[in-house]
Design a protein that fits this description.
about 325 residues; mainly alpha; DNA polymerase, domain 1; hpI Integrase, Chain A; 2 domains; 14 helices; DNA recombination; Integrase_SAM-like_N; Tyrosine recombinase XerC; DNA-binding; DNA integration
Length: about 325
């Protein structure tokens, strides 16, 4: 079962009954984001298939992604042991080369699902996932652009949809939006100098627009209107950002726009992406705007302050300036 033999398949029609119920619970009760539910389900499907192999419940010649788990009954879950859970994590680390962060997410997936079986459905008597230990994760060093690189990116925009693409980059860099949040913005969400954002888990927050953001939106709106007016039957009249065909812009399209403009600016191939633009916005706000971490938490829509703390990293300029302000410096 090498990494090359495992494909990313996650068809809901293949889910066992309890996993379908877990999905409903995550969506309707917990209010989890679609991405979180999908990631957890993918991890659990992999775990179920791994167990079928370990327990000799399938033909050994069956490709991993083709192992049927839709027929799993409650006894299957009742027999899960702590050892099997650890075996799966070892497999993920050694065979799939998963990082510590990915292993931690898989542990979270197991805990959430088996807690659901134990506390909500009372299918299992003991929840062994509670005894799983999280791996140590080193402090992440996030990728971001410095101020000069961010300005160069905006100055280098070249596109037949210039005002739209410039506006997209401006909102990423000034508001720190997630990709899905940007794509979901409606015209009606903009009121004066604020945008109503629907974030993870459908949580609502309001983001204030600075002058650069307001100017970019103002420049884009006439072109947006002209595009919609040129179409005989536009399908999307509410979305702020629209495609060539008048549809709400797709996440993949935005990613391609960002990738193209990074190339234009000569900074492609450095691990930068739409999410790294969010990192850049947060870093610039903290470094140059002197924004308090609690305020930054609200701007970014983080649930926990610990998530925001990754942006309080230091760089050489901040260290150099800190040394200079030492009162003994002038003696």
């Amino acid at each position: 079962m090498g990494k090359d033999h495992i494909k990313d398949t996650n068809l809901k029609s293949e889910y066992p009954l309890r996993l379908k119920a877990f999905n409903t619970y995550m969506d309707s009760v917990k209010g989890s984001s679609e991405n979180t539910t999908l990631s957890y389900s993918r991890d659990l499907m992999m775990f179920f298939r791994f167990l079928k192999i370990q327990r000799n419940l399938c033909d050994k010649n069956t490709h991993f992604e083709e192992i049927n788990v839709s027929d799993i009954k409650d006894d299957f879950y009742k027999q899960v042991t702590l050892t099997e859970m650890y075996d799966f994590l070892v497999f993920s680390k050694k065979q799939l080369k998963n990082s510590s962060a990915t292993i931690s997410r898989k542990i979270a997936s197991l805990r959430a699902f088996f807690s659901f079986l134990h506390r909500k459905l009372q299918v299992i008597d003991i929840d062994y996932s509670l005894d799983l230990d999280n791996p140590k994760i080193g402090k992440r060093k996030i990728k971001y652009m410095d101020l000069a690189e961010a300005q160069n990116l905006l100055d280098s925009v070249k596109s037949r949809n210039y005002t739209r693409d410039y506006c997209i980059l401006t909102l990423f860099l000034n508001c720190g939006l997630r990709l899905a949040e940007l794509c979901s913005i409606d015209i009606s969400h903009i009121k004066n100098d604020t945008i109503r954002i629907i974030g993870k888990g459908d949580k609502e927050r309001f983001v204030y627009l600075n002058e650069s953001s307001l100017s970019a939106i103002e420049a884009y709106l006439p072109d947006r209107k002209a595009k919609l007016d040129s179409l005989s039957s536009p399908t999307e009249k509410e979305a702020l950002f629209i495609s060539e065909r008048g549809n709400r812009i797709a996440k993949r399209t935005v990613q391609e726009i960002v990738e193209k403009q990074l190339r234009n600016a000569g900074i492609s191939g450095q691990g930068l992406s739409t999410h790294k633009l969010r990192h850049t916005a947060a870093t610039l706000l903290y470094k140059y705007g002197k924004v308090d971490i609690l305020v930054l938490k609200e701007i970014l829509g983080h649930e926990n302050i610990s998530t925001t703390q990754i942006y309080t990293h230091t760089d050489n300029d901040m260290i150099r300036n800190a040394v200079k302000v030492n009162p003994l410096n002038k003696l």
